[in-house]
Design goal:
The chain has two domains: 185 residues, 3-Layer(aba) Sandwich (Glutaconate Coenzyme A-transferase); 52 residues, no CATH class. It has nine helices and 13 strands. β8 and β9 form a beta hairpin. α5 packs across α7. The protein is globular.
Length: 270
């Protein structure tokens, strides 16, 4: 039952070139940065990554992308990475853009034994009809386009509505980051880091969790566990320095309000 590993290199053992990875995080929040760095250091390449986004140019999955270790991405938002844009438009990277809620449900379905599901999202668009550019050719033409998906009508709330079939996602490995975890793999995520981490963890055949704080079994209140240990095979405790190394996508602060002169003088007199 003790799933703790002693190093990042031990944690990623078994990941090989060409494999698929579900990677948790939302923006730069909750990114398994230590595991991603270990994959980079191991020289692994030709990877298919499933993640809400692809980090930024110098952090998260962006470090793998920069060295062209990712051949294909399934994601919903890619607007913060200039190298991603360049590789996609030049035909170096295949991208399957997926609506965010659909991506979340595809991952959840993959971990729940559900092969596919019907949703209204994307009906009447290229999501359902096909033709979305997955990969461009060097001359700018579309080399690989999304195929059409099955659509079907169902009675929904007293009306006949059209739905599109979406297939579940399961991956060879999943990489996630948790605020707390125990030796059995039960995990607690902090705020926005809970968005995609549990879903990615469910979708992986082998799930590796890096945890900022390792606790002993029984120390976590069952009511605070966001992901049960049955979905997690390996737990990597982070050092305090690794746990504190977090990035901000856009550092925006309000200007400091100017202090009224009279208030300053009264403060000094006091």
């Amino acid at each position: 039952m003790d799933k703790v590993v002693s190093s990042a290199s031990e944690a990623i053992e078994g990941i090989r070139d060409g494999m698929s990875l579900a990677v948790g995080g939302f923006g730069l929040c909750g990114i398994p940065s230590v595991l991603i760095a270990a994959i980079h250091d191991a020289g692994l390449t030709d990877l298919e990554a499933v993640s809400n986004n692809c980090g930024v140019d110098e952090w998260g999955l962006g470090i793998l992308l920069k060295d062209k270790r990712i051949r294909r991405m399934i994601s919903s938002y890619v607007g913060e990475n200039k190298e991603f844009e360049r590789q996609y438009l030049s035909g170096e990277l295949e991208v399957e853009l997926t609506p965010q809620g659909t991506l979340a449900e595809r991952l959840r379905a993959g971990g729940s034994g559900i092969a596919a599901f019907f949703t209204m999202t994307g009906v009447g668009t290229q999501i359902a009809e096909g033709g979305l550019p997955w990969r461009y050719a060097a001359d700018g033409s579309i080399a690989v386009a999304s195929p059409p998906k099955q659509v079907q009508e169902f009675e929904w709330m007293g009306e006949q509505e059209t739905f599109v079939l979406e297939r579940a996602i399961s991956t060879d490995f999943a990489l996630v980051r948790a605020a707390k975890g125990d030796r059995h793999g039960n995990l607690v995520f902090n705020m926005s880091a809970r968005n995609f981490n549990p879903l990615c963890a469910m979708a992986g055949k082998v799930t590796i969790a890096e945890v900022e704080q390792l606790v002993e079994p029984g120390e976590l209140n069952p009511d605070e566990v966001h992901l049960p240990g049955i979905y997690v095979q390996r737990v990597l405790p982070l050092t305090p320095e690794q746990a504190a190394d977090k990035r901000i996508e856009r550092h925006t602060v309000r200007p400091r309000p100017q202090t009224h002169p009279d208030v300053t003088e009264q403060s000094q007199e006091a």
